[in-house]
Amino acid sequence: MCKTQILQQHARRILAQSNRSCLFRSYGTVSAAAQNLPSRIVTDSNQNAHITPVLESWQKQVHQVKPSDLRGLIKNLRDSNQFSKALEASKWMGEQKVFDIVPEDYSARLHLVENLLGLEEAEKFFKSIPKNMRDYSVYATLLSSYTKSEDRLDKAEATFEKMRELGFLLKPSPFNSMISLYGQLQKLDMVEKLVREMQETKVECDSPTVNNILRVYADTCKIKAMETFKTFVDEQGIKLEGGTIVAMAKAYLRSGSIEKAIEMYGNVEGSEKEVYRLWDEYKKETKVNDNGYRTVLSSLLKLDDIQGAEKVYEEWKPEGPKLDMSIPSLLLSRYYAEGMEMKIDQMVKSIRKKRYEMHFKKIKERLILRRVIVGMGLKVEQMAKETIRRSEMGTTLLLPIIDLSSPEKISTAQLIRQACLEHGFFYVKNHGISEELVERVFKESKGFFNLPLEEKMALLRRDLLGYTPLYAEKLDPSLSSIGDSKESFYFGSLEGVLAQRYPNQWPSEGILPSWRQTMECYYKNVLSVGRKLLGLIALALDLEEDFFEKVGALNDPTAVVRLLRYPGEVISSDVETYGASAHSDYGMVTLLLTDGVPGLQVCRDKSKHPHIWEDVPAIKGAFIVNIGDMMERWANGLFRSTLHRVMPVGKERYSVVFFLDPNPDCNVKCLESCCSETCPPRFPPILAGDYIKERIDHLADERNKAEFDVEEMKIVWAGSRHAFEVSDRIARLVASDPVFEKSNRARLSRKELFKSTLRKCAHAFKRIIELRLNEEEAGKLRHFIDQPAYVDLHWGMFVPAIKGQGTEEQQKKWLSLASKMQIIGCYAQTELGHGSNVQGLETTATFDPKTDEFVIHTPTQTASKWWPGGLGKVSTHAVVYARLITNGKDYGIHGFIVQLRSLEDHSPLPNITVGDIGTKMGNGAYNSMDNGFLMFDHVRIPRDQMLMRLSKVTREGKYVPSDVPKQLVYGTMVYVRQAIVADASIALSRAVCIATRYSAVRRQFGAHNGGIETQVIDYKTQQNRLFPLLASAYAFRFVGEWLKWLYTDVTERLAASDFATLPEAHACTAGLKSLTTTATADAIEECRKLCGGHGYLWCSGLPELFAVYVPACTYEGDNVVLQLQVARFLMKTVAQLGSGKVPVGTTAYMGRAAHLLQCRSGVQKAEDWLNPDAVLEAFEARALRMAVTCAKNLSKFENQEQGFQELLADLVEAAIAHCQLIVVSKFIAKLEQDIGGKGVKKQLNNLCYIYALYLLHKHLGDFLSTNSITPKQASLANDQLRSLYSQVRPNAVALVDAFNYTDHYLNSVLGRYDGNVYPKLFEEAWKDPLNDSVVPDGYHEYLRPVLKQQLRTARL
Ligand SMILES: Cc1cc2nc3c(=O)[nH]c(=O)nc-3n(C[C@H](O)[C@H](O)[C@H](O)COP(=O)(O)OP(=O)(O)OC[C@H]3O[C@@H](n4cnc5c(N)ncnc54)[C@H](O)[C@@H]3O)c2cc1C
To answer: Does the predicted model carry a pTM greater than 0.90?
Structure first.
């Protein structure tokens, strides 16, 4: 039976049962047959066959062919090069008169006519097109016909002109056609003119444009223009076509640069031969140097020719006094990326060999090598990293030296220009600052850094000026180190507006008497050197010498001196800790003096990976000068702001840096002398102050306010140092992998989104294998990818179900397949008709003793499985829950492993109908998951695919419960639910992290006399809404931690057949799942509101988080249904109170019923609410009294079940009170543990009581009506709550930093770590497809007719 027949049969059966035969008619065979006609046309290999009869029969069968289907057919025919059939269909369409012909139809036909019948016919056809139908697409087709040949230039130009006149030059395509034609004719001036026009009219270059232009430059061998334009292309991230790269390579060859040609061929797939050919040629013609090797190796590696690269590497005879480690590094980093450990080992040996060959005896490097080879106990992965890093200890860079005293200004400016173009770095000597002053500055600087820490901390950096302690700053935020190993002191302007706005802090004269005077003297001197230098830099940029004065840059400039001390030792050798990690400077120029200790390195090409670092030694008495980002912006990238860093060299190092940056109000705008038509401005104009703000940490002030050790809090949050380290490492791994990018998720169609899920899962699995991640690490990796996927169900439900319910034999068979993902499984329990009520499931599994098989069947439509994640499109297998029937008796719900799809071609197996249930709430969100439906039509499976750990069916069909206790199932349930509670704390903390950071960045109202406005986090209402959620995040974290312990406890007890605590553990996990997920879902929405309007943007991260999270309130048990289970358990416990049965675990407090029913809270003042006993007693009294009241009310009913139904709402409230007590008590218990780290416990204490008192305030009605507290005590609790908010306020940002979420994981513009919210919101807005064009698609059809009042004649 074919698949369609099966489907039809199945549908018939289900529809017959549901008595809706009318539906069946529309599912009939007619439309299916009709659907087949067009596909027959496309697949018919006879090119000459006439298709009109087929089209007519199609028309008859379906009565009215849809225009969209017909257009689809024509497109398919065109795409498969069946032009004559396509033209016939297109003509037929025109002749039918029943279709609404649109301009696109004409343009398609025009294209076909030109292709098949030639240009003359096409021109005739064009003329026959009604004028109002000649839109952009028609003209663009005509133009592309003309631009195919050089002799039609006149017509092409006339058509192009006509398009300009009609306002049709809004897209790149017509420009591309003309550029390509002009290119063939070598009319370079015309090409440049068109590029200019595109820029002026804001038509963005697309890939064909840039490829065309580059080809024109390459063909005409305009190397310089080609390179300049290529820089622009690289910036735009536009991909070059193979043909373009080859043309460029050829241009290089023609101009004699074989090396560059080799480099280019590295980017063209399949060019290995050409690379070898050129390499041989190169070797014949030139004396091969390290550069040549570097080029050919990186090209071969790009072409994935690792073996070839290894051979070339073998040939390499290093030159120079030092082994250039960047060459082996190329191979090393590839081995590292591919996880080729043996090769890494061999490479390390080969480096040693090369070194010996060179008789290289430098002790330091030998030591490094030995360390690497012996391994010092490091893992291979770390070894490789270390090798690469050490190898980056580069060769020495010889920088030009500028003599500032030279009277030859023009030639000095020339030298500076050259230095800025090539390096962005140079030396300046003879600057006029005396050696004696410099010595004094260093001496005073040492004096300051030698002060006791308390003295230095008293001058802690405020408003950018003052002291920053060791590791307080990390210039490269992507590193995992705790911070850069340096301490520093900043001072700035001595006079002017900036000096008033940012006053300097000076060490006390009593301690360092001549300090301030020396520093002020140096400041004045170095500022005047900076001004002089900027005059020369202006000349170097072809500007007037006083250009920077005129544009206001030097009018009260932002000029800051920074004194630095790098200690000799770093705290740990196995994490990447730098003196100053890789960065570029923000401003105009930086002037550096050092004490001669090396360490400074520069990387001249930041786009090349791995970075090549070169040492920059100090020259006594000379400044090392470098260009900053703002100068790079002015110079349109011609002058480089070079990446640099300071390596730890095992020796204390001092330096003095002077940053000369423009006045904050100066507009930094691309210089005319640095841009041209083909090299347009790369950066938009920006005020210097705004740029600096963009680059710095907007939340630094908030972080400085923290009164506790954030690093220690991170460990407490993670649960242990080990957990923190794993989580931190894997989060960064995911964040740095482009495959796991997710910032564009909202813009993907459902299909694209789903495919991206498949890609991410496959890539994750690959990385897990390559990096040999263990179970914990693999779980974290999947978690940080942060995209709901079939793997969640495979690992989270399918595998645990087999583990929990399968026999040992079954586990052996199925888990070995599942663990390697040779099969993918899901958990198919819920049906269309029943979810919460599992006993109501209708799918049957009937044992057939004749064949020793179970027959799995979907008897009704409502019995269809509906919802299981991963079922729709991916799973090959499922654990299916069905009613077991044997010997005519129904034994209730049991699990069965059923194969759903072929392991060969993934098609569903016979008699199985499976698919996706459709799009779910939100953009992106859960739509990455294929939640599915599933129907069985008497599908047979072997008997041994019933999960038989708890009960089995014998060969004869006898149902036999096993001696394994049923309660075992509870163990799995506790496991799954504790994971859900842990997830709640994560989702809640994510939302709170976003809302807290944004509340600190956002300012509204409150500005006085031009001062700054109030941060919204300072409003008490904001605190009152936000801080309880922050406290809840911590509360849920700790209760989750406790649940983890509970799971271990339950497992141990089960193993010892101790079932006494099981019902209590089961009820408590059910209640906590319900409580935490409900609170989290509500909290995410509250956080959205706390972020005002911007919270509603997808890029705030909150809408998607909400959409992904809310189903947690429903899956794994509807939250209300779960609370009712808790309530049943509570009623049972209350009923047994007098019976001598002692309540256990979280219900132990009920054993003190006598006391709790009559006690009165002893709270007399606000601080008493910080007493754990007072808080616990109030919560216990409230929970117990509510439960007892319910029990009393229940006893009034004769029929208990009827009473239960009547009191459902009260029962849920009582259950919630009990669960809240559990969370509060576990938070208090956490505080009794030994928690280290400065101020950490204090913060947790504050949060604990915020959580408890907020609940008390929220449920005041319960507390008052049960007389657990008095109104006066309630008011004292409120006072205490307010005081706690004030204590948390300065720590709020640090408390969310302690979650240690990467920006990738948060995926929120509002929650960015650096708080740089506004420019990034704009960036996101520009990415939206609606902003692809300034005039929207649809303007001509639907907007213009409205605006021009032409609705009557418009074709809508
Ligand atoms: C995103 C998502 C993923 C899922 N993944 C899976 C999966 O992988 N595998 C799987 O098998 N299932 C899955 N499910 C299904 C899920 O487990 C069920 O939807 C869930 O158990 C709730 O059952 P229900 O849909 O029958 O709700 P219902 O029980 O129909 O709930 C409807 C309403 O009735 C109320 N209600 C129901 N019973 C009572 C009662 N006794 N007393 C008072 N009120 C009551 C509920 O509180 C709710 O308000 C998924 C669901 C979602 C949303």
So the answer is: no
